[in-house]
Amino acid sequence: xxxxxxxxxxxxxxxxxxxxxxxxxxxxxxxxxxxxxxxxxxxxxxxxxxxxxxxxxxxxxxxxxxxxxxxxxxxxxxxxxxxxxxxxxxxxxxxxxxxxxxxxxxxxxxxxxxxxxxxxxxxxxxxxxxxxxxxxxxxxxxxxxxxxxxxxxxxxxxxxxxxxxxxxxxxxxxxxxxxxxxxxxxxxxxxxxxxxxxxxxxxxxxxxxxxxxxxxxxxxxxxxxxxxxxxxxxxxxxxxxxxxxxxxxxxxxxxxxxxxxxxxxxxxxxxxxxxxxxxxxxxxxxxxxxxxxxxxxxxxxxxxxxxxxxxxxxxxxxxxxxxxxxxxxxxxxxxxxxxxxxxxxxxxxxxxxxxxxxxxxxxxxxxxxxxxxxxxxxxxxxxxxxxxxxxxxxxxxxxxxxxxxxxxxxxxxxxxxxxxxxxxxxxxxxxxxxxxxxxxxxxxxxxxxxxxxxxxxxxxxxxxxxxxxxxxxxxxxxxxxxxxxxxxxxxxxxxxxxxxxxxxxxxxxxxxxxxxxxxxxxxxxxxxxxxxxxxxxxxxxxxxxxxxxxxxxxxxxxxxxxxxxxxxxxxxxxxxxxxxxxxxxxxxxxxxxxxxxxxxxxxxxxxxxxxxxxxxxxxxxxxxxxxxxxxxxxxxxxx
Length: 639
Prior knowledge:
Elements: H1 8-11, E1 20-22, E2 25-29, H2 38-48, H3 53-56, H4 59-64, H5 78-94, H6 99-103, H7 106-119, H8 121-140, H9 149-152, E3 157-161, E4 177-180, E5 187-190, E6 198-199, E7 210-220, E8 223-233, E9 235-236, E10 239-240, E11 244-248, E12 260-264, E13 267-269, E14 281-282, E15 288-289, H10 295-302, H11 305-334, E16 336-338, E17 344-347, H12 352-381, H13 387-415, H14 430-439, H15 444-455, H16 479-503, H17 509-541, H18 546-564, H19 568-573, H20 579-596, H21 600-605, H22 611-614
Parallel strand pairs: 2-17, 3-7, 4-7
Antiparallel strand pairs: 1-2, 4-5, 5-13, 6-12, 7-8, 9-10, 11-12, 14-15, 16-17
Helix pairs in contact: 5-8, 7-8, 7-11, 8-11, 11-12, 11-13, 11-14, 12-13, 12-17, 12-18, 12-20, 13-14, 13-15, 13-17, 15-17, 16-17, 16-18, 17-18, 18-20
């Protein structure tokens, strides 16, 4: 592999150490700038965190990272780590003015996950379950007169039981039943078969007494009314309650959580256990009424909190991705390796092969952040008329953001070399923690397939006017042109999916969908990228500082070219690009990377990770694991 020093413009302002003795010869160490331009990073942070929201929404959760109780605790067993996550959940509850208001505020709720995911994946999971799925579900149904103080004070932790061993993505088909007992007016909650055991809820005794909202089929006089939620106490200070059977599942990858199998043996519940709303009510005489005639719609209304959960999962993995990049970028600036001639030391950041990969990941992380802000705002402001479309966009964004987070955390870990394997360096758990977000609140592939089937015959054309300039005169640095190309990718894959569906085997719906699903998924992927690109350019236009605006526009160009590179054949074949465009793509990307390289640290510093947190991460603070055991000048292992 060829090596190269940083160009002069990248080294401007860098500190160059005096000659030092090492291994019997003098070594010249070339260092990269350690202090980014504060105006640039500050303006980027303002845009990333939605201006005033940086204080009103994010500041309290960001502050948790400065608390030593949330710093890395080495040497804990999985059981101790789970217990620590519950302790931290209670510490989070201490800083909340009103858990009810938090559960009703998607922006603050998502921000909580964005920051807690950085330090404790288990805490991120528990917070999502307790505040969103459990407490949020109670509040979204008729809650007047219901005493929630046990849950808001966390004398009892809430959990959510929906998925069953035999029913995951087909949850509407779940088998758990809650049968109306007309004699008492209450319900009998039962698990009728082994496949109906609730799969993976955090129902162990770890963390203290717990209650759950349990998704079960409401049976009235033997008639199935659909799936509803039932508030069910699971345990107290002495153990699990009668009829509640819990078995701990094996440890999984990522930060441990007390996942269990849970079953009910004719557990009696009071009348008020049923969470009621317009989609389903029981009168005093046991008469059932619903505004929704379709049992599937009743189920979706009952578990409506899953949509906000998708935003929370996206936010959690988004925070993980940004943290991994901040650590990797700082390591790249401080880690010195041998240069191209004897006695010269250069930072990892000097290599295009290193900083180029980090910049591509930074471009993705900014696109993910701006997309998440845009979609979250859409969800907060949606109307009943556009609720379905907005919920679909939330699902599409969740799939795209969590998948990109996996790519970023994996890349960042690799760029830290062997140092990235040590949990104390804050990065080794992040890729596996992201995996939880990919599967939770709807497996990504499944929710994308659902979105693709719904959007296949929607109009996906670009309603923006096309430029009148000849195609050959439009350079690959033209942001509107790049955006147009991505819109054409969406339309192109949609057209191919439609053709495949029409040409599929007659009388075989599954066979026809199998023919169309691959191009339909490409359509959804490109659509998600297009939404991210629009959010990116909107944010760049809001920049008040000229350097920040230019930097963001260049980063957006890099992001768009990155997304378009896989589709150049399609675009060339459909006459949306010229051969010269395809030939010049690599050099355009290379020029952008060179122009952005001096701003890499500023781009990472804008992620706003507290200095107190970074100081606890050795490779983010200029150190390395094992360095304290090395003699001065002796070196310290691999990069």
